[in-house]
Design the sequence.
């Protein structure tokens, strides 16, 4: 990235004017990218030299892994001013990742109303809709018409910077519908707001998991959604940008867990943090690899008599591992998006079983031909073919059944399914191949 090199050159030269000219025209997300790609020392020097400074939008864009260090390097007055610029949902998002002393400093800098709103949001469970929502809402009585709503919107001094709906409430402050700004602006003034309300209207409880909220947004194509308390009263609103951030985080978390590198790993992590996130799964893999080695050890006599088996074993295990990973990836994604449920699980299992049979037969023909015509051992070709069919079938089933079982038991299917699936395919592959070889070749 050419601009990054220019910024680093300016930092090294201590050229504040050059840094200003490079960073000031950029969007906050682009500045955040630069801060994330440089070393901590370079980052501290850049922030000290940059006259444009850090504002609320930039703080909300910076990756969680470096945000606390950025905040600690800034004067308290700068942080306080940046926080005052943000909506309550963005303030909560930042505070969640800070330790308690840092949280207290920022809360003290907020205006009383904002501080109370943020503290109330933080009182909700972590990863809940209450943490995700913003308290700033635009509401109107359900009996108003378009003209009354427009007049009130024009005269109001406390509207959020961005909003998509006017939420209609009853006398008990319970949301009953909402109307898009587009419909309000295009309808005659005497039109009752209830007549142009959106059919997509629904609410979520403040205690609902944020993953459920993100699913609702994606499923019903929502732009915003009112949040209610246990009594059904309006307490906030969640907008599409926050819901999509949750979906992105869920996707990233699934990828990291499938790779078994920890669900919060980042290229910003130091050596020790990276080691801590990876070594537990490497240890688990070591144990499962020893299980596979024990299976191989059961057939050491067979391998000693037919040495070519040692060269062919990895083929069977590798094919099973890939087939299992293919099924596993589809299953984990389908579970996360709720496309795979108890209602259709058996159909999907049957499909994967048939896929395993077809793939097994296809590669059985190929490997059988290798054993017969290339190696000149027809019975070895038969062993390869049968082992391939068995392992690919088992791999396809394991890839779907293991995540289903983990989900049923309340565990995240992305967390450890890969380890179990690979263990199953290795053990079954080695046992089937070497067991058949012992029976048919000796």
Sequence:
């Amino acid at each position: 990235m050419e601009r990054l090199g220019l910024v680093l050159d300016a930092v090294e030269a201590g050229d504040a004017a050059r840094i200003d000219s490079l960073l000031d025209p950029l969007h906050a997300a682009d500045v955040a990218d630069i801060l994330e790609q440089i070393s901590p020392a370079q980052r501290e020097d850049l922030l000290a030299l940059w006259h444009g400074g850090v504002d609320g939008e930039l703080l909300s864009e910076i990756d969680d892994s470096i945000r606390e260090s950025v905040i600690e390097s800034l004067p308290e007055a700068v942080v306080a001013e940046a926080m005052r610029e943000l909506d309550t949902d963005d303030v909560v998002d930042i505070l969640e990742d800070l330790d308690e002393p840092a949280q207290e400093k920022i809360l003290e800098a907020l205006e009383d109303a904002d501080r109370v709103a943020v503290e109330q949001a933080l009182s909700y469970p972590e990863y809940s809709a209450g943490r995700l929502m913003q308290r700033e809402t635009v509401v109107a009585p359900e009996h108003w018409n378009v003209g009354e709503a427009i007049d009130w919107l024009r005269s109001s001094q406390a509207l959020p910077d961005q909003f998509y709906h006017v939420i209609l409430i009853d006398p008990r402050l319970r949301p009953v519908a909402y109307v898009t700004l587009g419909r309000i602006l295009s309808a005659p003034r005497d039109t009752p707001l209830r007549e142009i309300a959106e059919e997509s209207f629904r609410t979520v409880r403040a205690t609902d998991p944020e993953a459920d909220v993100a699913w609702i947004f994606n499923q019903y194509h929502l732009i915003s959604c009112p949040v209610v308390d246990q009594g059904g009263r309006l307490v906030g609103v969640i907008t599409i940008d926050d819901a999509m951030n949750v979906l992105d985080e869920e996707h990233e978390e699934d990828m990291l867990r499938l790779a078994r590198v920890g669900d919060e790993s980042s290229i910003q992590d130091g050596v020790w943090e990276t080691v801590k996130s990876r070594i537990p799964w490497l240890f688990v893999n070591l144990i499962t690899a020893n299980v596979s080695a024990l299976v191989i050890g059961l057939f050491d006599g067979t391998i000693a008599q037919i040495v070519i088996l040692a060269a062919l074993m990895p083929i069977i295990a590798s094919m099973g591992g890939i087939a299992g990973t293919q099924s596993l990836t589809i299953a984990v994604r389908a579970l996360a998006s709720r496309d795979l449920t108890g209602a259709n699980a058996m159909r999907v299992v049957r499909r994967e079983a048939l896929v395993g049979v077809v793939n097994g037969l296809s590669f059985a023909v190929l490997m059988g031909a290798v054993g017969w015509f290339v190696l000149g051992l027809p019975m070895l070709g038969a062993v390869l073919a049968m082992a391939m069919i068995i392992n690919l079938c088992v791999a396809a089933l394991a890839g779907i059944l293991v995540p289903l079982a983990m989900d049923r038991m309340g565990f995240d299917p992305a967390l450890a399914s890969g380890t179990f699936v690979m263990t199953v395919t290795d053990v079954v592959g080695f046992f089937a191949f070497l067991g058949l070889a012992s029976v048919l070749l000796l």
In short: Residues 378-408 form the longest helix (31 residues). Residues 348 and 400 are 8 Å apart (CA to CA). The beta strands are 139-141, 165-169, 175-180, 204-205, 224-228, 234-239. The mean pLDDT is 85.
